Amino acid sequence: MKRLLAFGLALLWTPASLRAQEAGPGYLVGVVSESGDMVTWIRPGVDALTLDRKVPLGIMPADIDGPHNLAVSSDNQFYYVTIAHGQPFGTLWKMDATRTR
Question: How many angstroms separate the Cα of 76 from the Cα of each of 11, 36, 38, 39?
């Protein structure tokens, strides 16, 4: 019975002790917008999200290209976006992550 009580008290105490941690200054989230043909980079904070930049993508001006996936290189120098619409096999774009636009 004592173990059950101790476990219950630990469960009650744990959520109250957890707090959101502030993200470091270099932390970014990339969102790929399929219908907007762009990558939006967002900087999360404790109280708000801040728009860092928007990077347009695509080669077909009259139709959406439809970017689908995003991956960042291990050295944070490049990011890769896959685009599947309008091409039979799709394309893989290598983007410079150090440039602001």
Answer: 38, 24, 19, 16
Distance CA 53, CA 77 (A): 16
Record the tokens describing residue 9, joined without a space. Answer: 């008290």
> Does an H or E element contain 55, and which?
strand 49-56
d(CA 39, CA 34): 9
Let me know how long the chain is: 101
Domain assignment present for residue 38? The answer is yes
Residue 7 falls inside a structural domain? no
Task: Report yes or no on whether pTM surpasses 0.85.
Answer: no
Residue 90 confidence class, pLDDT cut points 50, 70, 90: confident
